[in-house]
């Protein structure tokens, strides 16, 4: 964020400079000069107050980017075996093996391959949560595994497939339940292709893997396919600097307060930082990995559980790092006011106005 001035912000929001200055004073901030650059948090706050929806654009320009693991979501029709497949994949993770199969439920887990590569699986977002996350611009998923039961009829596959397509990320198909006598993976292939999914064996780029979640067959193949897909995508992220992260799942713990499972997209989330999470705020008191082990920081694609928030955020909420508790409070209060305003129609109309700022 290059630091927009209040003059520039007035121009971009169509409001007068004095209106914006009044808002600044109301939130207890002041500028020495109209030409002082605003911090991104203040810019967002002011814009929200005048009904302009701010979207933070993150650029990695000038920063060192390094390869990162792929983040994978499983989708598919109910009963086709998503939960079974995730459980089976979870058991192939080194962490699960070390802990004798007991990992804490974080809504995400990491499978580490012998090669040293790893894959992060999100095991929460159902279609609704996933859509909500995308609506809020939280594109945390790199690849979707579309689970299709090998013994199922035609009709029911379609909606799951369109959901997977709507995710607008590469799809890898897992034809599940291949152990069943009634399984007919060939028929599934033909159906998917006739519905417009460009399968690899027919000249497209969608890989298809036959698996049995119950018998744990084909899991290594599926993991290999995901790694191959990830390789093609050349996934990279900035490691240093403030984190840009998203909430995957949140819950209230009686003793520890609000807990959020988070995935970092870029940068590193560090213990002790002040954060704004959706409309909530807090100071990160503890970061735990998928094993429940305390860790100092979370890097890209590493699922962690964060503790220290003052309220319960929602799946898909963004996590931003701010410089102080006052900033966190202020931005959170501004976002809460903004959420309340969205209820009124006048504001809804005004909210059509959007402002994109680079961070
Ligand atoms: P979800 O609704 O997509 O999460 O599906 P579940 O994982 O709950 O599975 C639905 C049913 O299919 C359960 O009774 C599973 O035991 C069964 N199932 C899942 N995977 C397989 C498989 O590979 N083979 C067989 N035979 N049954 C399976
Ligand atoms: Mg399920």
Describe the structure.
This protein is an alpha/beta fold and 359 residues long. Helices cover 31% and strands 27% of the residues. The chain has helices at residues 6-13, 17-26, 40-49, 82-91, 94-98, 127-135, 157-166, 185-194, 219-233, 325-342, 345-350, and strands at residues 53-57, 65-67, 70-76, 108-112, 118-122, 143-149, 171-176, 208-210, 236-238, 244-253, 257-266, 269-270, 274-277, 280-288, 297-298, 303-309, 318-322, 354-358. The strands form 5 sheets. Strands 4-5-3-6-7-8 form a 6-stranded mixed sheet, with helices on both faces. It has a 6-stranded antiparallel barrel with strand order 10-11-16-14-13-17. A two-stranded parallel ribbon has the order 1-18. Strand 4 (108-112) and strand 5 form a beta hairpin. Helix 3 packs parallel to helix 10 (325-342). It is elongated and about 75 Å long. 43% of the residues are buried. Guanosine-5'-diphosphate is lined by residues 76, 78-84, 176-177, 179-180, 212-214. Keywords: Initiation factor, Protein biosynthesis. This is Translation initiation factor IF-2. It comes from Camellia lanceoleosa.
Tell how many strands the DSSP assignment holds: 18
Ligand species: guanosine-5'-diphosphate, magnesium ion
Share of helix, binned: 25-40%
**What oligomeric state do these chains adopt?**
single chain
- What Rg is obtained from the alpha carbons, in whole angstroms? 22 Å
Distance between the termini: 4 Å
Order of strands in the sheet with most strands: 4-5-3-6-7-8
Task: Give the overall form.
Answer: elongated
Number of helices: 11
What proportion strand? 25-35%
Overall mean pLDDT stands at 85
Q: Return the structural class.
A: alpha/beta
Low-confidence stretches: none
Quick one: biggest sheet? 6 strands, mixed
